[in-house]
Design brief:
Blueprint lengths: L1 H8 L11 H6 L5 E2 L12 E16 L12 E10 L2 E16 L6 E12 L2 E9 L6 E11 L4 E9 L3 E10 L1
Parallel strand pairs: 1-2
Antiparallel strand pairs: 2-3, 2-9, 3-4, 4-5, 5-6, 6-7, 7-8, 8-9
């Protein structure tokens, strides 16, 4: 279950090709990098941002079912957030099992992840559903932001690693 959360959080686009400035340029858009600090100058229009994340703390809760995955199980975790090799913030979230089909080694577990990244001058909220434990790239939705990310929406991907991951977000501001 720990690897499932890592993959899920390795916290953000419906397709990885949407999450790079080069891919955007190929589609005829002139997106720029988002900034994570400078509260006096919030992000506007559309921009891209990428973070590396690592698990800091993890707590698994088996809520009433037998050992193994069951409906309602949760994982609560905190992340360290890095950009260009430098720690710039933290993330907190939960991962809730929402569906289990089959049993034993043949079971398929679906889960919902909800996370908030706390960055130098703002926060970003991310939400997603992981349909299988072995998904390598997870599509995520950006559901809100504060500070330099106020009014943020958008999408992105989380690419899984071992106790780490890469979050790529395409942000749009109202």
């Amino acid at each position: 279950m720990r690897k499932r959360v890592i993959w899920a959080v390795a916290l953000a686009t419906a397709s990885a090709s949407l999450a790079t400035p080069a891919a955007a340029a190929q589609r005829g858009h002139d997106y720029h990098a988002c900034h994570v600090s400078n509260a006096a100058n919030p992000n506007r229009g559309e921009c891209f941002v990428q973070f590396d994340v690592q698990f800091a703390q993890v707590k698994k809760l088996n809520l009433g079912g037998p050992p193994g995955p069951s409906l309602g199980d949760e994982m609560i975790l905190s992340l360290d957030v890095f950009q260009n090799g430098r720690k710039i913030g933290v993330g907190d979230g939960t991962f809730t099992t929402t569906r289990v089909t089959g049993s034993g080694p043949n079971s398929v577990v679906e889960s919902q992840g909800i996370f908030t990244l706390r960055l130098p001058d703002g926060q970003l909220s991310i939400q997603f559903i992981q349909l299988r434990d072995n998904e390598q790239v997870l599509p995520v939705a950006v559901t809100g932001g504060s500070g330099v990310f106020r009014g943020a929406g958008g999408d992105g991907t989380i690419t899984k690693g071992n106790d780490s991951g890469v979050v790529k977000l395409h942000l749009q501001f109202a």
